[in-house]
Amino acid sequence: EAKNRGKSAFQRFAPEMKEVSQERLQTESLLRRALEMQEFELRFQPILRLGDSRIMGAEALLRWNNPTLGMVPPDRFIPLAEETGLIITIGRWVIREACRTVSRWQKQTGDPVIMAVNVSPRQFRDPHFVETVSAALQETGLEGQYLELEITERLILDNNLETDRVLRDLDEMGVRLSVDDFGTGYSALGYLKNYPFDTLKIDKSFVGDLNRDSDDTALVSAIINMAHSLGLKVVAEGVEYQDQLEFLSTERCDYAQGFLFTHPLNEREFLLWCSDHMDG
Ligand code: C2E
Ligand code: MG
Ligand code: MG
Ligand code: MG
After folding, report:
1. Is the ipTM beyond the 0.95 threshold?
2. Is the shortest distance between the CB of 81 and ligand 1 below 6 Å?
3. Which of 113, 171, 212, 262 has a C-alpha 20 to 30 A away from that of 142?
4. Where is each EAL domain found (predicted)?
């Protein structure tokens, strides 16, 4: 009985395994060619200052538009890009493209907008990472203070001397540094004091539960106060409702980002959104 059940379970399972790995192989080979085929695009989501609702900047969010797979969201290919190391060349493209874009906006509008760019652990640990960033700034003529690199808590907590050196080198270049997805790591808060971070981004899972969960309400308020006492600015991500925004304003959160304002936009849409927002 048990043996038969085991066997049939195996037979049901095995073909799926094969499918999964074949799908993965296909995705991987498509991903290898994606850069040269120019299949990557950036979307931009505005980050607004809560005090006066002015546009502080934008977060660049990567999209992979492949003829076979369609529009692939980052959560579906960034882990694979990390595993294969492809994230290093893809990430280099993202940084350069983001710098180029924001430098163009600044020239067009005269506004000192900031571009936030996500950096994944493997990319950050690439020995040429600092060089990649400084080359992108140099090529595009962008000042470091207009580029903000978003690094996840997990990376910082893997703590080693190299992380420390890279963060300091970036800080010396004037680049801004932010902790993304704050609260989802192990929250060994000590690192905030020891590293040159400028901004802390409260993970959207806390913001999402603000209206329902009073523990999250207390947590968000504590995070904001703690960040401020360490001299960090706070961005709340994933803001979808007006009452979340009101709570965040009352708690003196500095910036907000989320579908309440707009989902991520392509460059043309973003510039239109900004000019509407300024007028309105
Ligand atoms: P993230 O950096 O935390 O980015 C915020 C994510 O939340 C984005 O998802 C954004 O579209 C989404 N979002 C924005 N507002 C709202 C909201 O009001 N509600 C909800 N539910 N979601 C909202 P996206 O674009 O799918 O990106 C997912 C993740 O992929 C990012 O999370 C980031 O970790 C990673 N990622 C995106 N672009 C890049 C990139 O260029 N390089 C690297 N290494 N990672 C990237
Ligand atoms: Mg981010
Ligand atoms: Mg700094
Ligand atoms: Mg985040």
Report:
1. yes
2. no
3. 262
4. 24-278
Please give the model's pTM, rounded to 2 decimal places. 0.92
Task: Please name which ligand lies nearest the alpha carbon of 168.
Answer: 3
Q: Ligand 1: which of 43, 61, 95 to mutate, most ligand atoms within 8 Å of CB?
A: 61
What's the pLDDT tens digit per position in 218-277?
999 999 999 999 999 999 999 999 999 999 999 999 999 999 999 999 999 999 999 999
- Is the Cβ–Cβ distance between 191 and 199 less than 8 Å? no
- Distance of CA 77 from the midpoint of ligand 4 (Å): 16
What whole-number distance in Å separates Cα of residue 32 and Cα of residue 37? 10
